[in-house]
Structures are given as C-alpha cells and as structure tokens.
Amino acid sequence: MSKLLVLPLAIVGVVGSPGVASAAVTVPPGAAGHTCSEYQYVNGLQHYWQACAWADYRYVWFTANFGNTGSSDWRPDTVYVNYIKSGVSYTCYLGWWQEGSFNVPANSVTSTPRSACVLTRVPGAYAADVHINDSNPNYGVTAHSPTLQVQ
Fold first, then answer.
1. What is the average per-residue pLDDT within 1-14?
2. Which residue, 42, 36, 1, is CA-closest to 140?
3. What is the pTM of this model?
C-alpha cells in the first residue's frame, strides 16, 4: 500500500484507531485548531491515550495525550510521537521516550511536550503518528489523529 493511501484510510478509521474517526479539521490562515484520535485503552480502562495534531498561527505540533485513573504512576515502556504530512511519514527525533522514562502520574492526565514534535507552520495535510508499547499487558499500538488540514 502506498503511503499516499494511509492518511485517507486513517480518516475513516481503517488505519490508526478503531471505531469511527472524525472528519478532517481545516485550520484557516491565522487560526488555531486541533484534532485527536479516539482513546486507546491499555490495562482495561485504567490507562488510556490518544494521538493529537495541533496548529496555531505560527506552529504545527503533535502530541500523545495520556490519562491514568489508577492509584499508582504509569510508565509506558516506549512512547513514539511522529507525524505524517501530505501522506509522507516523518520522525520527530525528540519525540521518543524509552524504558519507562515518560511518567503518567496516578489519577491524572498529561501529554508529551509540544517542543518534542513541532514545526513552523506551512500549509499541508498533517496527522499525528503515535506508537505506545507497554509490557503490562503485552501491548503495542499505533494510532493516527484524523487529518489536520492547515491552510
């Protein structure tokens, strides 16, 4: 399958998150907006996360947003935050946490830092490309945000 087909399939929910994904979000010149995948659940409903793409008047960035309803901290084994622009996958070299180095405190929500995967805003079709591994349970899932169409 060509990489050009990956982004449209993510919009209809075939690639990325299961279920129905929302349609593309258009961000007009000078405006701000964002779009996120559906939540992905790890270890029942206790640990969850989603892939998000954001834009403001100057930047486009990508995050993984996490929630932890448990009574102890959650440290996923690995977190990878990358992005897709106009059907082509790109790596964010600062968007990688390994060996439990990213912490989601008990009974809280948090996200990866904006600075880990940020670009100067230029027009294009963007999506977050996030992969999470966790050894308890044996878990490895990739999710893509719906398309963020930046004008």
1. 32
2. 42
3. 0.83
